[in-house]
Amino acid sequence: MNARRISVAExxxxxxRARAAQPASGAEASLTLEVATLGALYGRLxxxxxxxxxxxxxxxxxxxxxxxxxxxx
Length: 73
Known about the structure:
With 73 residues, the protein is mainly alpha-helical. It has helices at 8-21, 33-47, 60-69; strands at 5-7, 52-54.
């Protein structure tokens, strides 16, 4: 059985949904925890030149953030 993979495109869509619903705020334009978590995951994938990541390889915080903001399939 194949594990569920999240593509960079799906991750970008989740980040965009989260940012639209929870824009950066305050004088320093602080990101919410979920947006920051998804952004860090995105950066890691880009740095590692990967086009996807297995859900099983994500931290609990990354899975929660994706669960909240990943567009429905």
